[in-house]
Amino acid sequence: MSSLRRRLAIAAAGLTVAAGAALGVYRLTDAADATSVGEAVTVYDAQDARQVAGTADDVFAGTVMNRAGQRDIAGILSDLYQVRVERSFKGGLQGTVTVSSEQGAASLSPGSSYVFATGRVPDQRTHAILLETKPASFTSLTAPVGALAADEETARRTVADYWTWAVDHERDVASG
Question: How far is it, in rounded angstroms, from Cα 49 to Cα 133?
Answer without folding.
Answer: 10
